[in-house]
Amino acid sequence: MAEEQWRHRRGGVETALRTSAVWASVRGLIERREAELGRPLRVLDLGGGTGGLAVPLAELGHQVTVVDPSPDALASLSRRSSERGVADRVTALQGDADSLAGFVGDEQLDLVCCHGTLEVVDDPAATLAALAGVLAPGGYLSLVAAGRLAVVLARALAGQFAQAHTALTSADGRWGSADPLPRRFDATELRTLVEQSGLTVEDVHGVRVFSDLVPSALIDSDADRVALLELEQAATAHPDFGFLGQLGAAVHVLARR
After folding, report:
1. What does pLDDT average to over the chain?
2. Is 64 helix (H, G, I), strand (E, B) or coil?
3. Pfam families of this UniProt entry (predicted)?
4. Distances 103 to 49, 68, 164 between C-alpha atoms, Å
5. pLDDT confidence band for 101 (50 / 70 / 90)
């Protein structure tokens, strides 16, 4: 495989270690929902930034609105969508969860994605309520948020035992005042928050159980990457050891209105 091809494949949403498991779940969901509705989906990506998820969704034929507070990220999104030939299916809007009602109006959406955003919003419960409010009946929420136990393990392996203890016991899952994230979640907490928004949780699983711990030098080939992804999938789906998913760097929740 040529170096350029390898870099493209490794960095794509379908194959990158950080996104492939989430993408597989989201793609399966949208294929089922598209078959149910008989048309492309109306999608909202809150905090979608430069379009790492939005552009691949648009390439599948769906209409995607990205709401993000960063004008620089949205400018990159516009360039990426133009380069990939899907600018007519991607709408970039500067705002946040508080802006959704004004942006969406009376339109109801088939899929709302909130990936890597709930950790930094002011009020997670209010954000989830706003997202649930713009979903059509039968519509889906895909929520990905940072997991608590992963940082506990990472801090302990780094010899930062006091920080690991703080992350384990603190209300917000942070390891200290220098922690760059405002909060982290465990699976039970996320499930409760989503259910309180009025949605029905259909699946909760951990992602990136091992990949964030493995040195990059040990993932030097396509075969290594595929083997690691298969290990991740087997660990989270194992009937006896599925609890390993709780160690994932992120928790992925799929819920339906």
Report:
1. 89
2. strand
3. Methyltransf_23
4. 17, 12, 41
5. confident
- CATH number for the region 3-147+185-256 comes to 3.40.50.150
Determine the Cα–Cα distance for residues 240 and 235; give it in Å rounded to an integer. Answer: 9
User: Where do the structural domains in the chain lie, given as residue ranges?
Assistant: 3-147+185-256, 148-182
Residue that has been written with the tokens 């089922």 in this structure: 32
pLDDT (tens digit, 9 = 90+) per residue, 60-99? 999 999 999 999 999 999 999 999 999 999 999 999 888 8
CA angle 238, 241, 243 (to 5 degrees): 110
The percent of residues above 70 in pLDDT, for the chain, comes to: 94
CB 204 within 8 A of CB 251: yes
Q: List all residues 6 or more positions away from 218 whose beta carbon is below 8 Å from its beta carbon.
A: 224
Which residues does 11 contact at the CB level (< 8 Å), separation at least 6?
none
Within 13 Å and on the Cβ side, how many CA atoms surround 48? 31
Q: Which residue has 């490794």 as its token pair?
A: 10
Q: Which amino acid is at 137?
A: P
Provide the 8-state DSSP code for 185: B
Count CB-CB contacts under 10 A for residue 116: 19
Q: Is 4 helix (H, G, I), strand (E, B) or coil?
A: helix
Q: How far apart are the first and last CA of the chain?
A: 44
Q: Residue 212 has which token pair? A: 């964030």
Distance CA 48, CA 144 (A): 12
Longest Cα–Cα distance of the chain, Å, equals: 54
Instruction: Tell me the C-alpha distance between 87 and 209, whole Å.
Output: 35
